[in-house]
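Students often ask why we bother encoding 3D structure as a string. The short answer is that it lets us treat folding as translation between two languages. Here is a chain of 398 residues written in the first language.
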Amino acid sequence: MNRLSKDIYLDACSTSPPLAEVTDEISTISSQIWGNPSSVHNVGILSARILEKSRNVIADKFNVEPTQIVFTSGATESISLALSYLAYSSSPGRVIISSVEHPAGVLAVELLRRLGWEVVLWPVDKYGVIDLNYIDQMLSSNTKIVSIIWGQSEIGTLQPISTIAKECKERNIYFHTDATQILSQGIFDFLDVGANALSASAHKFRGPKGIGFLVLDKYYLKKFIDQQKHIHQENGLRAGTQSVALIHGMSIALDRIKTKISINKGNTCFEPSNTSINTKLLLNNLLQINGLSLLGHPTHRLPNHISLLVTKNNRPLPSRKIVYELSKIGIYTSSGTACNSLSQEKNYVLASIGLKPEMQKSNLRISLGNWIDTINTPLIANIIEETINKIYYQTLNE
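And here it is in the second language, the structure alphabet:
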């Protein structure tokens, strides 16, 4: 079998290797500047300065006020905060999510369901794009919250976020988006998105694990602050001593992202990068292999993301076995979203785009990051093809 000269990590959508600068700074702050940023003595004040400097850096990247940045433990908590604060301050109504949301979004609305809210799934087309023909039905008068993932982690499809945000604003509906997979590909102006709230997680863009943030517009920031009187951290929006080291590491990672994202006529537009070029080259090589087909939208997709349906002679192959065999060779991929990868249950995202149950376990996800300068795409494609053939003959004998 063909082999690479060194291992290659192709699972960026699961997590990313932190920048060396990030880990160095985290180590320094953890060992030398460890004060509680809420303390009023010099040790605490020094930590508080680093905390607020980091907040300023992040706010500047999105062109918002520092107070609009709320630090959390990651995207899952950010999504939960974004939805629960409004839910607790409003009588129950209807909350809309897409049928291809990340498990974090599904978990968040389950809490609302227990509080008496009606949860409705916005249907998607065969590419996983929400069907705008349902817009009047979804955004009816009893809808109070809409939360839509921007870039789908499993199939790579992008949603028309600014279009949905505009429609929600016209109807006075609170709109949140999960931008977890977007930020590794570029920085954008929060106002251009049009959302009331946006969630992200640092470890997706080469920052540390265990830290993320929520961006709120000024109206809902004040509305949420007014609800809380007993919490002293993060403008009263999130209790607990802030992890200054992780927050500073996150701000460094975010500040190192130089590519830009713009929105044109509702479409998300990415600046070209080595990552997007490498991804296109690899995809072109992979699609030459019989039995591999692309899942998700062919063009409106994350530029570092490849989602494949793996078959041979019309026989679906278990992608978990392919991932395992590739890992033994030093190619690290995944069989879908990491939060779902250990589950043997029906895949609701793939079901939403029309895949039958017997095909849903054949999804191979490959996602690239900017730690890869050049990539031998023909060799990787050849190795994947050899691995597929190996798994195919194994399944014939089972």
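Translate back mentally: The two ends are 23 Å apart (CA to CA). Keep this in mind for the problem set.
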